[in-house]
Amino acid sequence: MLKIYLKQAWNLIRQERLFSLIYVVGTGLSVSMVMVLSIVFYMKIANIYPETNRDRMLVAKSGMIKHKNGSQSSSSLSESMINTCFGSLKGVEAVALISRHDGECMVQPDGDPVQLPVTVKYVNTVFWKVFEFRFLNGKPFTDADQQSAIRTAVIAESLARRLFGTTDAAGKFISVDFRQYRVCGVVKDASLVTEKTYALVWFPYTVADGYKPNGSWYDTQALGDYHAYILASKGTDLKALKKEAEEKAERYGKMLGEETFTALGQPDYYWQSCFRYWSNERPDYVLLSLQYGLIILIFLLVPSVSLSGMTDSRMERRLSEMGVRRAFGAPVGTLMTQIISENFLFTALGGVFGLIFSYLLIYLTRDWILQIGASFVNALPEGADVVFSPGMLMNYQVFGIALLVCFVLNLLSALVPAWRASHRQIIDSLNAK
Question: With left for phi above 0 and alpha for psi between -120 and 50, is residue 267 left, alpha or beta?
Fold first, then answer.
């Protein structure tokens, strides 16, 4: 029966081409707007290279101190605080440290007077376990390198090819800000989409200027220069681990004497950390969910009203058909099913158009599209390009979202017209012109 409905819907498309074109394009534009938001947020929270463990990760980025004189300070966390509160948790596989003092440095290629701007990050050795970079040559710097502050570096594939013409760069030296570093490994490039891990050069955090072992900020034990990425072991209850980590951070805050420390509800689930912009304020996740839900609802409702009017107009022209079928005993439910099935073909075609258009829109506006909803990055580093891998865009989650949007849009635009058409008095339907 469904096959017959779809065949009839296809014939209607061929007979009413202008109506069909407007309907499909209108549906597609609505779907594309929702899909752009969905794809952007999918890339923020899904497991994508090299952040393939986001689903079992907790993040602590900042804290706040209330001093005995009544003043407040907020910043990133100290190495000591992170190790004390999170390093000994049961069910934790590793804790990566990333310095907030990342930025841009200049590389001096041999025999080339033009210096190259590169994005650098200062990390610990466990960083390479938490974030699963694929090493093309060499290996990560070692604990001995980190503890001794030996100038070693892991570089990205693109930089290795630019400097040496090959990825076989382990053991060679590069000059960064006129300091020599030995390359210990080369990794496949990360996309700027994964802003937490993106760089072209990664150094041990101990080689950073001004580094002090367990150094803290503002003469406190809790604030410092680091963000912590806590990787839970497989099978660990992440909710229970988060609660335990919060309790340890709270107890740590009470050990500081006259000062009071709070981690403001951290560590966060990975998706929550994407919305934590300020070091002295806890986001209202309920409000954020409502805001983005309202945006998506508006994207769906506005075209649905227009499409519903078009569907209702088309139903008016088919009232005679509905009247004849009801006169011969067709149930109301059968008529509604047919109308919604026919309409679903229209929305499905619009969904395919919208999905393709959303990919095109993301590609053409990739330099700034990541600022939709919540910023991925503050600014695009010089020489960097936003790269979307096929796995980021073409996957069952994204297609599932597109199908769901089409289904919801179909119901919103077709349900009322279908109900009105199928519940008309038979005599009125037969006499309709």
Answer: beta
CA torsion through residues 361, 366, 370, 371, sign: negative
Classify the C-alpha dihedral 278-284-287-290 as positive or negative: positive
* 218-248 CB burial, b ≥16 within 10 A, e <16: eebbbbbbbbbbbbbeeebebeebbebbbeb
Contacts for 362 with CB less than 8 Å, ≥ 6 apart: 36, 39, 40, 369, 388, 393
Query: End-to-end CA distance of the chain, in Å?
Result: 28
Query: Which single residue is written with the structure tokens 């590793």?
Result: 94
What pTM, to 2 d.p., does this model score?
0.79
Q: How many whole angstroms separate alpha carbon 303 and alpha carbon 29?
A: 9
Q: What is the pLDDT of residues 149-206, one digit of tens each?
A: 999 999 999 999 999 999 999 999 999 999 999 999 999 998 877 888 999 999 999 9
String of DSSP letters for 64-110: EEE-TTS-EEEEEE-HHHHHHHHTT-TTEEEEEEEES--EEEEE--T
With CA atoms as reference, report the closest residue to 82 among 183, 229, 292.
Answer: 229
CA–CA gap between residue 393 and residue 202 (Å, rounded) = 27
Dump pLDDT digits (tens) for 303-351. Answer: 777 767 776 666 666 667 677 777 777 777 777 777 777 777 777 787 7
Q: Which residues pair with 155 in a beta bridge?
A: 186, 201
Rounded to whole angstroms, the Cα distance separating 25 from 414 reads: 16
Answer for the pair 381, 119: CB distance below 8 angstroms, yes or no: yes
Q: Are 66 and 264 in contact (CB under 8 A)?
A: no
C-beta of residue 275 within 8 angstroms of C-beta of residue 283 = yes
With beta carbons less than 8 A apart as the criterion, state whether 229 and 57 touch: yes
Phi-psi region of 138 (alpha: psi -120 to 50; beta: other; left: phi over 0): left
Measured CA to CA, the distance from residue 127 to residue 96 in angstroms comes to 5
Average pLDDT of the chain, as a whole number: 80
Q: Which candidate, 27, 28, 24, 1, places its Cα nearest to that of 12?
A: 24
Prior bond of 50 cis (ω within 30°): yes
CB-count burial class (<10 Å; 0-12, 13-18, 19+) for 114? exposed
What the block records as the tokens of 269 is 């689930």
